[in-house]
Amino acid sequence: MLLVLGIMFIAGAIGLGAMALNSKQGSLLEARMATLRGETRAIEYKPTQSESITVRVLGPMGESLGRRISSVLPTSILRSIDQRLVQAGQPVSTGGFLGAVAILEAAMFGMGFLMAMSMGGFHGKSMLIAGTMPLLGFVLARTWLENRVRTRQHEIIKSLPDAFDLITTCVEAGLGLDAALSKVAEKVQGPFADELAVMSREVSLGKLRRDALKDMADRVGVPDLSIFINAVIQAETMGTSIATVLRVQADQMRVRRRQRAEAQAYKAPVKMVFPLVLCIFPTLFLVILGPAAISLYDTLVKGNIGK
Fold first, then answer.
1. Is there a contact between 249 and 171 (Cβ–Cβ < 8 Å)?
2. Which is more confident, 125 or 276?
3. Distance between CA 87 and CA 59 in Å, rounded?
4. What average pLDDT does the chain have?
5. Spatial distance between the Cα atoms of 141 and 54, rounded to a whole number of angstroms
6. CA 220, CA 243: separation in Å to the nearest integer?
7. Which domains does the chain have, with CATH numbers?
8. Average pLDDT for 87-110
9. CA dist list (Å): 192 to 30, 32, 112, 116, 198
């Protein structure tokens, strides 16, 4: 009975967490526009008619729970979570993320409680398990967020060399830097194009280009992009030709891409050791030495018995 209740409790908690994660804050462009208008609060969750009634009902519940949790958390923690969510591409609002984490923590706590009860009550080992399960829930939520950040940054890093080449070509063809960035945002697909679109919109609304570029570097969190933006800002300050700086930065970006590929190639033999030792070598030993071991057993053991 406890097992059935535990499964039902965990399934319901996971469902609520999924609904909370579906409560998006809106697009990244809308979030940046809200910031430019001076709005300090997050964009409210607005369910659409295409979503199921479960999402439309439980989504705002998760968002509301997250807002109540954020009201008691320190500002530094909220700022850190919001920054990581922005670097992850704003897959969910801060309130939705906190609500999902709270539901996941409750599910893991309930699982630990049921496991402790199934082990005969609360004693040393069961208390350790009950205390470890909520920590595991926190680790899972953090791992999910960090994985989203790494995936998005990896996609941006892969698209940077080609995007910089296109920016350089547009500037050398006579376009201004703002027009070149807007053109690349139209032609390139992926998260970097989205960030360029946000930056272009901020500049068109009156924000200084250097400030918009720095904000984009903070949102992305990729060192290669930060180097490029710092070089462009320095070229504007010193009066250097933007086209020359872009060409140099594009060449260096291709060199860094080749160096990263070579580093991954050098790491491949080391990473192959573990599957070879744990999976392939035991099978080979079994196939090669198995018949020899059987023959040796027949010769030594059965031969002695026959004597």
1. no
2. 276
3. 23
4. 77
5. 22
6. 24
7. 2-154 (no CATH), 155-257 (1.20.81.30)
8. 82
9. 16, 15, 42, 48, 10
Please state the three-class secondary structure of 234-270 as a single string: HHHHHCCCHHHHHHHHHHHHHHHHHHHHHHHHHHHHH
Answer whether residue 109 shows pLDDT above 70. yes
CA angle 239, 244, 248 (to 5 degrees): 125
For 45, the 3-state DSSP assignment is coil
Question: Is residue 67's pLDDT more than 80?
Answer: no
Is 163 in contact with 192 (CB distance < 8 Å)?
yes
Structure tokens at 297: 């057993």
- The count of other CB atoms within 10 Å of the CB of residue 252 is 16
Q: How far apart are CA 187 and CA 163, in angstroms?
A: 9
Tokens found for residue 74 = 């320190």
Instruction: Indicate the helix (H) or strand (E) that contains 14.
Output: helix 2-21
Helix, strand, coil % (nearest 5) of the chain?
80, 0, 20
Alpha carbon distance, N-terminus to C-terminus of the chain: 61
Token pair belonging to 282:
């035991």
Average confidence (pLDDT) over 24-45 = 45
Kindly state the average pLDDT of the residues 152-177. Answer: 87
- pLDDT at residue 38, as a whole number: 44
Predicted TM-score of the model (pTM): 0.70
Q: Averaged over 243-250, what is the pLDDT?
A: 86
Question: What CA–CA distance (Å, rounded) separates 196 from 97?
Answer: 26
Give the separation between CA 300 and CA 138, rounded to whole angstroms: 58
Q: Which two tokens stand for residue 24?
A: 């998006």
